[in-house]
Amino acid sequence: MSLRLRLTLANVALVAVSLILFALLSYLALDRLGLREVDDTLQQRAESVLDSLRVRPEAGVVIAPAEQFATPDTYVQVLGPSGSVVSRSDNLGARSLPIDPTLVADNMAGRTGYIITQVDGGRMRIYSAPSSLLVGGRPLIIVQVGRLLTELDRTLANLRLIYALGTALTLLVATLLSAGIISRGLRPIAEITAVVERIERAEDVSQRVVYEGPMDEVGRLAATFNGMLERLERAFAAQQRFVADASHALRTPLTAIQGNVELLLNGIHDPTEQRISLQAIRQETGRLSRVVSDLLLLAQADAGQSFQHVPVEMMTIVLDVYPQARTLADGVTVSLGHEDIGLVAGDPDRLKEVVLNLTDNAIKYTPVGGQVTLSVYEDGDWVQVEIADTGQGIPPEHLQHIFERFYRVPGVKARAGRPAGTGLGLPIAQWIIESHGGRLTVASEVGRGTTFTIWLPRLKME
Hints:
This protein is of the alpha+beta class and 462 residues long. The protein has 3 domains: 3-156, Beta-Lactamase (2-Layer Sandwich); 217-302, Helix Hairpins; 310-457, Heat Shock Protein 90 (2-Layer Sandwich).
């Protein structure tokens, strides 16, 4: 059973229950109200008969004729102390109102009462009341007033017919309207399903759900689904770029290694040329090893790997990197700037890897005579590690892309003798810092230099 049909049936069932309850309660209320009006009329008529009862010395007990209080649909009957009929209205003819022994017994005890009985196939309401005058401990008379409920029954019958037809018509309209409204409301879901099916068949995540309705639950579902497709499209595109760039990064050193191996196999006898080929193989093997290691780190990042968190002084990390940086400087001045302790919680090896990677990049893209400065600041709840250089700088349009995998800024080249990067160092550095609850920012101006800033939560010792 489809969701549309289930929702339609549930809605119609709710409407049906509501209508039936309303019809039942209103029917019972009308029946009770009509019966109460009849009871009031019968009681008033019986009291009028009893009020006409007089005791006169010369004539004894005198009561007005029952006919005087009757109407075409109202019948009057008077019983004596023995319970026998002593008077009745002419509209009863030769018949008498039904005498209920229980009701008469209540009357003899001084209590009034009502009954409903069947007369000639119809219902009749009878009110019976005793007089206050007693004879031998019994009421002098008992007045019974009856009225046919034909009019009330006719009204109730018409009401039942109206309710039955009205309920059937309302349910029909409710079914049609519910089906239409639910179909319209579920249309975006049907479109989402269709889009998913088309994506499954064509493996094309560029498709989107077209929704022009209000931003309700269904609207938010469509928007969320479109957002998910957009993220998937970007992820697939990034994956394709990653595969292509990884293949290129791996193919270049492999090609160089293969070429030098073939030269050696072809019988190079000059020791100098052999040494050059072997050095090239070693260099490309190291490069290949670094690419594989970086790819492994990125795979660990994608898998959500976490690091150990121990107290680490970032100034100590910088002081460890400083002598290594000076060894790599090759004509670039590496110096220490502002020095704070910078206590954080993290993995010291990974944090040192980030600082060393950023420092090496700064040296690599800073010309001879330039300067690289390492600083540590404590700023409120944060520790900042700055690696500032006076190198080439990064054009503004490329700043937002430098943390993408395998991205390299066009036109920006490393100094002579320094190998070009693979475009994986900055994404790895960003992952490590963000895994420590921090962030990595960059500010750069072409021709004036670049500053990378590591932000890490400051560890406050109690």
